[in-house]
Amino acid sequence: LMQLFRPLDMLGWVYRTIRQGIIDMAAMFRLIDSEVEVEDVPGAPALIVNRPTVAFENVVFGYEKDRTILHGLSFEVPAGSHVAIVGPSGAGKSTIGRLLFRFYDPQSGRILIDGQDIAQVTQASLRENIGIVPQDSVLFNDSIGYNIAYGRREAEHDNIVGAARSAAILPFIERLPDGFDTEVGERGLKLSGGEKQRVAIARTLVKDPPILLLDEATSALDSRTEQEILQTLRRVSEHRTTLAIAHRLSTIADADRILVLDQGRLAESGTHSDLLRAGGLYADMWARQAEDRPAVEPV
Ligand code: ATP
């Protein structure tokens, strides 16, 4: 009998993994209507992550044949470090995230995680290892507990509570009439932008991935909520390899390294103070965004 159940169990796991992957992708890239273009190579092994390093090696990519978006991009994210990608609109920042999640394959060059080419491993195992905190999270018409555990039926209640605590949404949930069983979404309780983000953070924590891809919130959060969310994200990403795609510079000034992308090429890289001293594109962008910044700035 077990022989019958094992494949079924496996199928369930594959289904949940794929579903979770699709939800993360859809949420981050709003590409739910796009076709998935990549396939696993036959007999592909699973990605095994011991040291979660990420490396782009001469990556050339365009969505269309005659329009190259990334022109031979190379960079490394050491295990456990926090790297931010900034640059003008259309520079290719989100494209980097889509390639890392293997929504597309590069035309040439390689993307490596812990030394393994992501095009050569299963997509399910790749996506298991990357947690995405998107700018706009998708919530389901279900309980808040379900929304946190989504795609992981095996998640233990303690695990869900722990994730909610780390995402700083536990006190809010405990005040709800039915706690974790409170219905949210269209038919239930409406959550604010900040609460939705915290649910997304908790969902990522249940998954407990070694690599985080943060897509900065552009949705209008008031600046206090935003500062609080940033603090939570900082805590959550502390021991994880983190790639943050940032539209505003004030949110990533404390990154270990900032990559400044311009028209699909790496224009500059360094710490916030290196880049200010260099007086290049980053320093210009920083000066231009000065008016939008709150009075207290990160150093
Ligand atoms: P922003 O800061 O405005 O979000 P970005 O740096 O994240 O910009 P990308 O979203 O990576 O930029 O887009 C880079 C380029 O690729 C843009 O010129 C964009 O028009 C193009 N592009 C993005 N997605 C697609 C797609 N699905 N098909 C064709 N071209 C695309």
From TrEMBL:
The organism of origin for this protein: Qipengyuania profundimaris
Domain ABC transporter positions: 54-288
Boundaries of the shown chain within the full protein: 306 to 604 of 604
The organism's place on the tree of life at top rank: Bacteria
Compartment(s) of residence: Cell membrane
Entry protein name: ABC transporter ATP-binding protein/permease
